[in-house]
Every structure is written in structure tokens, then in C-alpha cells.
Amino acid sequence: MTYAVSEIRSVGKPRRKRLSHAAIEPWLYLSPAIILLVVVLLVPLVIGISYSFRKFSAFKSEYVGLGQYQAMLSDQVLGQALVNTLWWTVASLFFQFFLGLGLALLLDKPFRGRKAVQALVFLPWAVPSFLSGLTWAWLFNPIIGPLPHWLFALGLKAEPTNVLSDPSTAMWGPIVANIWFGIPFFAITLLAALKSIPSELHEAAAIDGASPWQRFTKVTLPFLAPTIAITVMLRTIWIATFADLIFVMTEGGPAGSTNTVPVYIYVSAFKSLDKGYASAVAVLLLVLLIAYAIALIGIRRTLVRHV
Amino acid sequence: MASVTLEKVRKDYGAVRVLHAVDLEIADGEFVVLVGPSGCGKSTLLRMIAGLEEASGGEIRIGERLVNDVAPKDRDIAMVFQSYALYPHMDVSKNMGFSLLLKKAEKATIDSRVDGAAKRLGLDTFLQRLPRQLSGGQRQRVAMGRAIVRDPKVFLFDEPLSNLDAKLRVHMRAEIKALHQQLKTTSVYVTHDQIEAMTMADRIVVMHDGLIQQVGAPLDLYDRPANMFVAGFIGSPGMNFLPATVRKGATLEAVLADGQALRLPEGLPLTHGDAITVGLRPEHIKLADEGALKGEVGVVEPLGLSTQFYVKLASQQLCVFAMGRAGVKSGDVVRLAAEPDQLHLFDAKSGERIG
């Protein structure tokens, strides 16, 4: 069939109108969710970032542009806090992960009372971080806690003093508390991942001639890899932004030796009452963590492809 | 290749005995099917041959070698699992070559063996694919390829076709059988499907409640089932069972619950008043004007090639199988006959075959 060109045009016009309707319609359906997301997530984020361009004093605030960011460049306390954060995060994560993985592998084996042990393992996770911080601070205190005396008896310390009061060892206090606090997370998530490996796969590998170590590296680990990547990423972000334990145990001291970035942000905002500067530091931490997450997701992609 | 010998093999889980002193001799190159309902111990037995379960007692030999304490990898067996158990992160060629890689075989050897197996199974164009990119039938083939590549003494199959749809199952059944005819490797195959057992096996081992009920060639089991369990399990549609009492008059007869009587073959160790169960295969019951049995037709199931219908008789539904169109309809009163020598007689109490 043939149509005159004008005819096609006249048909096309109302159709375009309908198209624009069709283009808007789905957004209307999505609008409740979008509005909620914008109000709850985006607005506070933008306001928070906007604070980093202002200077706050007792009763007023003024726009200072990139002034706060310039101040960060010459802030040696911040530099130290970044190094501390790195140390705190890496050490906590390393021990949490490997001890958690070991625990998960143990809990994956059948034994009497496994259910009860699994429930117990999860317990530290349920303890409020303030409470665990206080408890660990007391444990490290030579007057009421046993740990300094045990360390002394084992010959690891020359005198039964508080590790938290020595700048060279203070960071280990919160790190140990954090390891205790964070192992359950890895143990439980990795245990769930382990449970999802079909037992027939291990049996097939056993028949194929794989030793227990080969079964672990060639079957278990590839299966766990996606879970490991995601949990390590989450934990890193949580640990890096986790200030409660340190603040309760040392308040960033002594002599700034346990001063991590989140502690510094808290101190800047609520002790020095420099909300603008605290916001600028928070933005820096946010950018660093986003960069880290992107890098890790990239690594995970290549890993999964090459396994 | 090798024979497999089981001697008084037992398996206990705590106080529960799931296998009672199993004796079985599987000849070199034989295709033996272990069949039975779920929970009969057939998979446990297979896993014990594989070394995935420890025997609680008895001896397992592959060839001349006692393997009770030999690790699965050193038993020189290959197993195909119901779920296929393919390594999801390895492509087809790595899946198939994994065992050789672990044995530190030369790369050229691995490649040639994998290629050979892949060609045989029609997988040569899929070698670089991951299991999740394959269909169910292809995965099944990869699982078989993994077994073939090892060139083992014994193949063990644990319900390998259960996860396939009906059509593919029929196809793979024929393929596995053809493969066995080429390779002639001793095979032990576990299934709950008696049709698979009948079509594939050189010999069938029927198991129930952790005991071997009967061992024999498929048609031997069909023609002379040793007890009521085997009789009911082998054959589809299943055998009809009618409780009856023996009457010795001029001829030997079985009197059914409603008083109707069936002639029995002569020369059996039966005495007047014996309680027996008469087994009748549906295809051995014929419509006949002078038939000894009378009943009303219930459900009629025409299948085109054949017709299956049920006749209400002695307060039971008797299944009758006829080729073509049976020419009966629901509500008809029909007379049925059965040849005396086609009856299967069982002791009513023990369920064992009589004669």
C-alpha cells in the first residue's frame, strides 16, 4: 500500500504527543520511591557537603569557598589521622577476616553442640559497641583487668602497664576490641556461603583426586570469592568510619596515637565546634572510600573472570 | 576394567541399620543397575563403592584389591552425580581435565584425552563454556565426559538422569547404553526408575529396606519375580495382586474374596486352604466371553497404541492392558480370563514366590 507523505505526517503528530505521555508515565509511578530517596539520602548528603564550604562560629556561618579544604592540606593532625585510619582498618580487617574464615571453616564441620556454638559466636556482634569498648578498656587496665598481668607473665611486656596509655601500643587496644567485635560478621557470612557449596562438589573433587588443601583452593575459595569481595568491602567501609570503640577506649589519645579520621571528625565537630572543617574531612573520607570501593569492585570483576 | 565384589557389606547410622549384609558380585564389563524406592539404601551402597561413605562392616573389592580403607581418589573409579557436580567456575575443558591436572599429567595428554571425550559426547564446540551456559543435557554430558577422561576401572552413576525432562531422559538413556557398549567399562548405575533399570541393565539388583530382594537379568525379574515387592516394583503398569485361598477339587483353584475362582497351574506345592496372593500382570488378562472372572469396567484410559482399563472385582480395581482399542466403556460388565501358567503366586504371609 502507498500513502501520501502528508498523510503519514498527520498520523505522526498525535502519536508524538502520546509518546511524551508515555515517557513521563513511568516516572510518575516511580516518584514515591524517588522522592523518598532524594529526601532521605540526597538532601542530607548535599547539605553535609555544603557545610564543608562554610565556616561556623558561635551564632553564624559564612561561605568560605574551598578555604576548609586548603586548611586540610597543611593539617598535620589530619595526616597522622589518615595514617592511623589506614593502620586501624588494615590490622582490624586482616585479623577479623582470617580469624572469621577459620571460625567459619571450623563451624562448617559437624560436631556436637554446633548450633549452640554458632549462636554464641554471634554474641559479640550483639553487644553494643560502647559496652564492648568499656569492657575492653577495663580489661586492659592493670588495676581491674587481667590482660596486662597475663601479657607480663608471658614475657610480652616488661611491666604490667596499660597498653592504652603508651602511644606506641595504644592502637592495639581498640584493634583487639574491634577484632573481637568483628569476627562474628565474617564467621557468619562466610559460614552461610560455605553452606551453599553443594557437598557433591567436594565429593566430586575428592574422587577427582584433590587433596584437602586443593579442595579448599580450587573449590571452596572460588565459591567464596564473591562473598569475600563484598564482605571485605563492606567491613572496610564500616571499620574505616567506626569511631565508637576508639572514642570510648582512648578518645584518640594518648598524644593523638589512636586519632583516626572519624574520631577527628567527631572531635572537630563537637569539641572544637568547627562543623565546616569536620564536614570537609568527612567529604575527604567519603571520596577515599568510594575510590576504594570502585577499585575493589574492579578487582573482583577481573578475579571472577580469571578464576 | 575390573569386577566389583561386595561381601556382607553393612552400613549403620548410629543404631539404624540402612544396609544389611549385602552380597553382590559385579562382573568385569557388566552394566548393573541398583533400583529401589527412595530410602532403600541403593545410593548409600554406591557411595560406599565410591568411598564417600565408610562401610560399617564387610568387604568391598574392586578387582582383587580390598578397598575398604582406600581413599576415593585411589580407587580408580569415576562417579556421575545426580546434580552433575560440575565445578561452576571452570569451563567444560577444565571440568573434564581436572582429575588429570591433579594427577600432574602432561598438558598434551590432558588436551588429547579431553578432546577425545568431548568428540565422543558431541561437546567439542562447548569446551570453552562455563557450566551455567549449558543446557541440562549438555551438563549431563560434561559430567559423563569428566568420568570418561579418567578412564577408570568402574563407572558409578547416581541417578544421573533424574534432573532431565522426560524426553531428554529417554535420549540420554540410550546414549549411556551406547557409550557402555563402546567402552565396556564396568558400570554401577543407581536409579529409582524401573524403566531405566529395565532398558539399560545387563543385570538388575532390586533393593528394599536395605536388603537385596532379587538379582537378575531384566526379563528374568519380570517373568519370575522372587517376591511381591519385586513383582510390584518391576513393570509398568504394575502387577495386580488378588488375595485368595487355595481350593483343591478336580482342579486346583484360587478362590477370591468374592467367591470367584481362577484355575491354578498344576504341580505346585499347594494344599487346600492355603492363603495366597495371586499376581496378574495387566497384559496377561484377556477379555473373554467364557472368562472365569466377572466385573464392572470403571475408568478407561485410551493411549492410542494401547488401552488400559480398570475392572472392579473382588472389591479391588484390577488393571487390564490391551493393545489397540479395547472396545469397552465404563459401566460395561465384562468377563476376563488368564492363563494358569501366567499367574504369579505368592505366599500371603511372607510374600515369597511359590514355585
Automatic annotation (TrEMBL), chain A:
Q: Name one GO biological process term.
A: transmembrane transport
Which InterPro entries does the record cross-reference, listed alphabetically? MetI-like, MetI-like_sf
Entries under SUPFAM superfamilies matching the protein: MetI-like
PROSITE patterns assigned: ABC_TM1 (PS50928)
Q: Where are the transmembrane segments?
A: 27-53, 86-107, 119-140, 171-194, 223-249, 277-299
* Subcellular localization(s) per the UniProt record: Cell membrane
Q: What is its main location?
A: membrane
| GO CC list | plasma membrane
Q: Which family does it belong to?
A: Belongs to the binding-protein-dependent transport system permease family.
The name of this protein is Sugar ABC transporter permease
TrEMBL record, chain B:
Q: Which PANTHER family match?
A: BLL2173 PROTEIN, MALTODEXTRIN IMPORT ATP-BINDING PROTEIN MSMX
The protein's matches in InterPro entries, at most eight in alphabetical order, are given as:
AAA+_ATPase, ABC_transporter-like_ATP-bd, ABC_transporter-like_CS, ABC_transpr_MalK-like, ABC_transpr_MalK/UgpC-like, Mo/tungstate-bd_C_term_dom, NA-bd_OB-fold, P-loop_NTPase
Please provide, in alphabetical order, the Gene Ontology terms of the cellular component aspect for this entry: ATP-binding cassette (ABC) transporter complex, substrate-binding subunit-containing
List GO molecular-function terms, semicolon-separated. ABC-type transporter activity; ATP binding; ATP hydrolysis activity
Boundaries of every ABC transporter domain copy: 4-234
Family stated for the protein in its record: Belongs to the ABC transporter superfamily.
- Protein name as catalogued: ABC transporter related protein
UniProt KW NADP keyword: no
The cross-references to CDD domains, in alphabetical order and at most eight, read: ABC_MalK_N (cd03301)
Give the chief site where it resides.
membrane
The record's listing under Pfam families reads: ABC_tran (PF00005), TOBE_2 (PF08402)
Biological process GO terms, please? carbohydrate transport
Keywords recorded for this protein, A-Z: ATP-binding, Nucleotide-binding, Transport
What topology in the membrane does the UniProt record assign?
Peripheral membrane protein
**SMART domains from the UniProt entry:** AAA
Q: Give compartment(s).
A: Cell inner membrane
- Note the Gene3D superfamilies from the entry: 2.40.50.100, Nucleic acid-binding proteins, P-loop containing nucleotide triphosphate hydrolases
